[in-house]
Amino acid sequence: MMSAALVLVEHASGVPRRACLETLCKARDLGLSPVALVCGADPAAAAVACAPFADRVLAAASDDLERYNADAHLALAARAVAELSPVLVAGPSTITGRDLVARLSARLGGPYAAEIIDLALGADGRPLAVRAVHGGKALARIAFEGSGPCFVTVRSNAFPMSEPRAPGPIESLEAGIDPSSLRMRVTNVEETGGGRVGVTEADIVVAGGRGLGDPGNFALLERLADRLGAAVGASRAVVDAGWRDASDQVGKSGNTVAPGLYVAFGVSGSAHHVMGMDGSGVVVVINKDPNALFFQYADHGLAADALEILPALIEALGE
Amino acid sequence: MKICVLVKQVPDHEAVIRVGEDGSLEVEDRYVTNFFDEIAVEQAILLRESQGGTVTAVSAGGGRNVDALRRALAMGADAAVMVDDPALADADGLGLARALDACLGTLEPDLVLAGRVGLDDEMGLVGPAVAELLGWAHLAGVVGLDLDGETFTAIRLVEGARETVAGRLPALLTCSKGLAEPRVPKVMQVMKASRARIDTRDLASLGVDPAAVAPLIRVAGHTPPPGRAAVRMIEGDLPEQVQALASILLVSAGGTS
Ligand SMILES: Cc1cc2nc3c(=O)[nH]c(=O)nc-3n(C[C@H](O)[C@H](O)[C@H](O)COP(=O)(O)OP(=O)(O)OC[C@H]3O[C@@H](n4cnc5c(N)ncnc54)[C@H](O)[C@@H]3O)c2cc1C
Questions:
Q1: Hey, which of A274, A313, B17, B54 would disulfide with A137, CB 3.0 to 4.6 Å?
Q2: A240: Cβ below 6 Å to ligand 1?
């Protein structure tokens, strides 16, 4: 029998995080049998979205699973691991995905590697992973000891999607959550990002820095983002100034992103910022200062005033 | 209330880091206390200032991590404990968590704070793993915290949302940027901290079997990150620049799925 790869699927409004779908595809490419575990108050839509990329989808429904609740999600993930004895257990490299998988690895005493960007199987069938360390200054190759499941979280955009296949069966998994086992409760949720795709999920990120001069000028960036289907990112300077929400921040103390295209307007390109985006595909930098540091990390550079370029660019791209 | 804070020392972001011929990592000797750990120390001190109690900084693995304990003391922690043992020399996050779990068991805190991730290997394992071993609740990415006796209300920033979470102590919280602004200790405090006693314990004294901290992951080697070709600058007058930029964006955007 093929060894299973269990992917703990995180989803928002029924849409699975792309890293989860990408990991299901990668598992199949490696000859593993991809199994998705989808938990939620109503996991149906996310389960259906996973099915074309999985051999099986396990769906657990409970109001206690509506938002990430470590106690509830851990219990279900541990049960799925016990049932499947997978060689690999993976989650997305999100705040809650990293919490869940790290904690599960400690509960089951297995090896864990965070935010991997590549995965292979060794001659012995054990996974081998690659991940960035020290803010992307080096890549580390990770081998996993022992014979039990290996635990990983996966950066989005690490693996390509494959063509959907005939959907795997969706089986419902009894949630069986004892409410008294839940030590924390989410009491309020405030959506951030104005309904746009988040920076860590997006194929394209258009980022703005202090060079945009004024918080109002981010409206231009948002228009460009909407035209390109991009997320809006921000430097820490503009987050600290209260121009943008902290969830938009790219860099060492914010999000690590690796979109196919990263476009920065009026960002200086400090090491702290670059650490968070150096894994991106094509990097385009627009900065007034021809000697701006960020040009050293870019594929294409334009030394110009972002406030002159942006309106003309939006017009050139059309609606 | 008794608060313990987990701290460690990591390379400064400006430290030169190179991959050696043999795949080993050569790290310049420029270390600082982990950015997120300093936020945790600050938050612990603020809680002590408003609610009383004590703050104990705890680290594992010895070596440079002593400097992180001294930093916490200089910032205002009351005591510092190091778990140091030859068996920890090549421990991974789970091994360190087992050592810290045993140590925290003797300190009996009500609340443990740690950084969201260490800015060296960036695993982010120790915090959640210690919570798991203690059998405690854990909340990651905390940017706001209110304590009221035995209960707490925390704000965590997750992708796409800001969530308010209510829970009870004991708990372990890992701290993100925005929770507190670390104070810069005064020279006098730094000097005092440099002479302070660090309570050091080994695994035997904590009843931890050295085999329990053997690493489960192995770094098989390093490679330099893929380099980027030299930048191509867009030239021309404004309309030409805009046209060139628009076509680069459209071509590159078309290449993404
Ligand atoms: C511990 C620590 C963690 C940090 N973490 C992060 C992080 O996660 N993310 C992050 O981004 N930063 C982080 N920083 C801060 C970082 O070091 C920089 O200070 C910050 O990124 C600068 O933001 P900025 O580029 O928007 O602003 P500035 O440095 O002020 O740069 C503005 C840039 O805009 C250009 N400009 C000005 N006007 C125009 C115009 N009209 N058109 C085009 N260009 C223009 C300027 O030439 C300049 O290059 C961190 C710092 C520390 C100490």
A1: B17
A2: no
- Which amino acid, one-letter code, is at B148? D
If you average pLDDT over residues A296-300, what whole number do you get?
95
Q: Does domain B2-213 have CATH number 3.40.50.720?
A: no
d(CA A134, CA B28): 12
Token pair for residue A119?
A: 């995965």
Distance from the CA of A219 to the center of ligand 1, in angstroms?
A: 19
* Interval B17-46 mean pLDDT: 97
- What is the number of alpha carbons within 13 Å of residue A120 lying toward its C-beta? 9
Residue of A nearest to B154 (CA): A186
Q: Is the CB of A267 under 6 A from ligand 1?
A: yes
**Partner-chain residue, chosen from B138, B164, B171, that has the shortest CB–CB distance to A188:** B164
pLDDT recorded at residue B251? 87
Contact between A81 and A89 under an 8 Å Cβ cutoff? The reply is yes
- How remote is the CA of residue A255 from the centroid of ligand 1, in Å? 15
Residue B159 is predicted with a pLDDT of 85
Average pLDDT of A36-52?
Answer: 97
Give dist(CA A284, CA B233) in Å, integer. 10
Interstrand relation of A184-191 and B161-168 (parallel, antiparallel or unpaired) = antiparallel
Q: Does A216 touch chain B (CB under 8 A)?
A: no
Cβ-nearest to B164 among A134, A186, A275 = A186
Q: What is the pLDDT of residues A193-225, one digit of tens each?
A: 777 788 998 999 999 999 999 999 999 999 999
pLDDT digits (tens, 9 = 90+) for B217-229: 999 999 998 888 8
Q: Which tokens in the block code for residue B126?
A: 């120790």
Q: What domains are there in chain A, each with its CATH number?
A: 4-181 (3.40.50.620), 193-317 (3.40.50.1220)
Check residue B105 and give its pLDDT.
Answer: 98
Q: What is the pLDDT of residue B257?
A: 41
* Residue for token pair 């981010």: A218
| ipTM, 2 dp | 0.93
Q: Is A6 in the pocket of ligand 1 (CB under 6 A)?
A: no
Given CB atoms, is B195 within the 8 Å cutoff of chain A?
Answer: no
Domain ranges of chain B: 2-213, 226-257
Q: Whose CA is nearest to atom 41 of ligand 1?
A: A305
Please give the share of chain A, as a percent, with pLDDT higher than 90. 89
State if residue A210 touches ligand 1 by the CB under 6 angstroms criterion. yes
Of A68, A113, A201, the CB nearest to B217: A113
Work out the angle between the directed axes of helices A218-228 and A306-317 (0-180°, nearest 10).
Answer: 30
Decide if pLDDT at B50 tops 80: yes
